[in-house]
Design a protein that fits this description.
Chain lengths: 269, 269, 269, 269, 269, 269
């Protein structure tokens, strides 16, 4: 059990952290979703948790328990709901879950919160949960919540190193080079490099259709090949993400007012 | 009143259309949201409605009444909730609205439905509304629903013509060249080209923060300049969108089974 | 596009209107519901929108986008849910929709709102949506919301002119003389006078029964004949409604305190 | 405890009634709402219960426990929410309550249900609760639900006897002659005839406004005088209502198919 | 009709009670649930109402209308949902019902409320309803709500007298000695002592399973024999409960601050 | 990462498990709640997860991701909501979460599910979530769900060994001997035996009151002393729980039909 995990702290220790001031709480959000034959169903939760821990180490943050179930997998970003093991929440269930957790943390004075998302399909339901928690707390509250999709912090420079043959876009980066490399770095025992399917990038239509079309998705559930994944690439990305997310969080919560200056934006990426 | 609008048909005429078979109903979804000083608050609803009408003409479709209110505007894609006139729905309200409309249309035999979205922030709440309606109808239903964000049908070729100096990405295309050109084509009287602010593209952090930060967004509400917008570019895009969306809709509903063949995907874009 | 429509204003123009003071926002509410073979499915939305525009012209009001879907059609007032094209919302979906729109308008300072209803079945769900928005805003808010069913402003004098042979009651006035005449005035191209069925007034039991009984309702969907409808009667009613609703709105919002005097009531009708 | 009350039956007795066939369950719905200084807060629940019992006696029906709380009182029909003791439910709470009760009764084979409403403001939320229960049960269910507002069964003939000087309309019949007479008949000990205020009928505007306007309503909460109320008039109405509602219920559930014939309608009133 | 019942008071009388200060409102909560062949379906509602009335007499309290429907019966505490007549609410429906009633009472100044529960399965949904109402009212409110399961006030001394052969635990006290004795005391005409089944106490597994297992439960619905029930035991318990609950309520609302002293706890049992 | 954890399996491995038949999925449910100065906030989640893993080893079960947040802490069972770090869900949020997870697992053929609860306050919201999922799946589904509060499997014999001086009841067993011993067995590094407060058992009133009373609860959050806790007692209980829960699960799912025989009950405890 990681010493930065809120679930490992006694309430007395947590209280002390709040009283010391500047406590930042990170809430990792994942999913239980197919990630091909070579990665586990919990990949999104494992990665968001691992990155949250890495960031927390840099900023003396506290990592709240992971929200391990996420919104419904979509064919074009996660392969879709038909894969055994993909176990998803209705949109409003996820909204209310995040709303409650954020509001509860804020009720006790934790007003610097980072929702760290590792599952593409979660983004807008997390957004609404946060928006509602902020509204619940009222305009007098000091609550500030950052919502981070970790992959948004990967710069062109990093992507060029990870994808020397060209970045296919995050849309197809499901169970592919990025996630597999990060898993190989953070959880090598859970990765079966020998089982990575060698598939060309999937081409999807410009729209979505419901009921979802399993036939749009390769049988493996992988949207573009992870063959080029390595633990070294994972370490490279993990290091970059840790540093840049940690910097953004500190800057955001310490220097809120300075953020308005537009020339401060680039440095945060 | 457009003769393809469902609201203009009597129930007898609508029944006839259903009985003739292959009736396709399009539901335009927009928002009431700031679009800079030069475009009206209803831009997203106007454009999704106009494109739905253009597509309906091609495929003898029927356009259901527009859902004119949408999900909360976000700073990085719509400028944010602080602009006067931006009037938004909670996520679950929009989910339930779409769920009801799709389920009701399907209840009466309209089982080929296109949800045509013109507001970026709507996408995931429309998705959930459709997913729930499909679940409500049960596995025996023949209901199929396409969800279309119209801009996803703009090809690299078209974008190169519209943005000869480089495409800044859809993220910044709020009240900018794409929307302004389309409005100049479809609703020229509602565009004030003389009021287009000349702003550089906004740089945003890689994350979001709540309560939303008005200071991240230019005072005008425009995220990148619309100076290069013209009605001609609007006509070019409108023509392309109409043809490609109409083709995709027809193909999807006519040739559902053939869609499984992966080499059929590219042609749909 | 009407210049009084909120959806046609830029946010800058809307802000100016709010800052000028006394801005009144009208929200037309309709339905997508059968109205016999001679009127379009969108009749309730079209009429509430047209009347809202007429009123707005008198009082420099602003017309928000129409809520085009309404509560489930009932046999005794709208013919019922079995007519193709009648596409309805669940009660709570409509409640939340109105709640959100009213609260959002009020959040930005529009605290004089008129919900103008054109669909009989909407009334109580609109009421609850307004009640909840008022509660959300809190007791310190200056928000005041009028809920208007437009037909309630028809006086005995007007009804006597429109129905020289006796007024059958609003209950049977679905797709009948009142609505057909108003449509012939406001939207003549959407009325097919030649298709008006010649039916005697329907007699209904004193109760309702569920599942709804299609056999209670004439096959045409018309509850009493519209044969006597004319554009002139429509003009007469439209003129009266516009003047009296405009007067009531102005009086209500300008002279709120004076309303308590009971002798001021009659003049408002 | 009345022997027709479901709450007084053992489950064995209730099962026997279901197995005997043709069991009809009545659900009285009321409110806790001011009814002037002379009638108790529970008037609507007491009257709907008393009438349900009277009807049940005629048709060997079973009276389920009364739903004693109702939707928010409105100034023009119930005086409004500002009177102490008026204790109301949100619309959706009432919808879900009725939905559950109807669905649960139907789950066990009670498929002939009468929702007997005594509170004007309840009507549409009861309607939606019933509509949802019917949808929940699916199209294969034999469930049929009647919704009865008891006053709708008062014929012109009866009204002429009760109101020899002219009927002011049900809108103003709150805590007035009808309800007071019925209470004097059913619950004489709960009526304080000496406290009936002598007020002229209230004149209301043609619209509603929120927050509700206490100043629209007489301080007593009575919308038109109950001075003419007598137990004899109550007995007259009670007898008429019992007979006609009982007849309608029996006819509706026994002769469902015959109801389609339009000439059968008038007899049911 | 009991003079302490809120439903029997006029609003003027209720207002007077609130103005006199210290008004305490009790809300009895029951269920419609099988209670063996010898007790009526309404037992839980009848007992919570009777005890609320007895307590109200002692403390000049006011008894609000009974919430007569409760949460789903569970095999191990109430026999389960399969018995005809057991008619239950979904959890959230009950939560919202209690939330509304408590908040509404508090809105008008009744800030000393007792939710008196007579149905084991209700407890946690009542808890949540109360928690939400308290949150709705805000931290400035003086609202205090007690939640009482009446059987928790039976002391070991009393239980020893009622169960001379040993108390089987409240879990099996469904339609058994405690409830039957109390019913024989409060509602003797509704008890059929001759129909009490002579069954040994049921042995249940340590877990629950869903769908519920009817075969776990005796066909009679009785979980342990009520043969030893007498009206005298009922009187003994009723007297004890009335006195101790009344004392606890008065002490709680009068001496709130003193409650913190731990040596004051025992006296309240 | 434990090899029995669903989150560690690839979808292919999980599919294989489902196809092998008899797959049993366990869902551990905990809370983030104060557990005194000597146990971590995540105790309930850690223990339910550890026991689920132990049971899964015995029965080749699969452990789904832990639901780490639970219902609001109550003073008499968990110390209450005022302790820093106690971070709770609204009741309906938890209901919907469990409903979704159970329904999703069942959708893919996992129809033998155990919800293993480690947080007292969760019980009834888990119950409702399961009841709703079972209803969602319909009567044709083979889904069976066990809900286990692990402490219910502690027999009198085991309790006598763990509490040689007498068992104070589960009500006071929060952060006390049972939980501390189990944590000392499963997670010794997270227990601070030196910080166990030496407190007498708390005496609580027979009722609850809201807003919750912090003064009812010892400042430490411990309801009865954990001084007698040892890892050996933890091992004793863990071994017993693992064996008896595993046996009950296997018997329940293998021998469902035999369960109806009442003499089979005792053996399951």
């Amino acid at each position: 059990m990681h010493p930065l995990m809120m679930g490992s702290l006694s309430w007395v220790e947590y209280q002390q952290r709040l009283q010391d001031g500047n406590a930042i709480v990170l809430i990792p959000c994942g999913a239980l979703e197919q990630h091909g034959p070579h990665l586990p169903l919990g990949t999104d939760a494992l990665l968001s948790t691992a990155i949250a821990q890495s960031v927390a180490e840099q900023i003396s943050g506290i990592v709240a328990p992971t929200v391990s179930y996420g919104y419904k997998s979509q064919p074009k970003s996660g392969g879709g709901q038909h894969f055994p093991g993909t176990t998803s929440l209705d949109g409003n269930s996820l909204i209310q879950m995040i709303r409650d957790v954020v509001r509860e943390l804020a009720r006790q004075g934790a007003d610097q919160i980072v929702v760290l998302n590792g599952h593409y399909e979660n983004q807008w339901f997390l957004t609404e949960g946060i928006e509602l928690a902020v509204r619940d707390m009222g305009s007098a509250s000091k609550l500030r919540v950052m919502r981070v999709e970790y992959w948004e912090f990967l710069t062109e420079n990093i992507l060029a190193q990870v994808f020397p043959d060209g970045f296919p876009g995050f849309a197809l980066e499901h169970a592919a080079v990025m996630e597999t490399s990060l898993m190989a770095h953070y959880h090598p025992k859970l990765v079966r490099l020998d089982l990575i399917p060698d598939v060309p990038p999937v081409e999807f239509p410009a729209y979505d259709v419901y009921p979802q079309r399993p036939e749009w998705v390769p049988a493996s559930g992988v949207l573009s090949s992870a063959k080029a994944a390595t633990a070294e690439k994972g370490a490279l990305m993990a290091d970059h993400l840790t540093r840049t997310i940690a910097a953004a969080v500190q800057r955001e919560f310490q220097l809120s007012s300075a953020l308005a200056a537009s020339n401060g934006m680039a440095a945060l990426r």
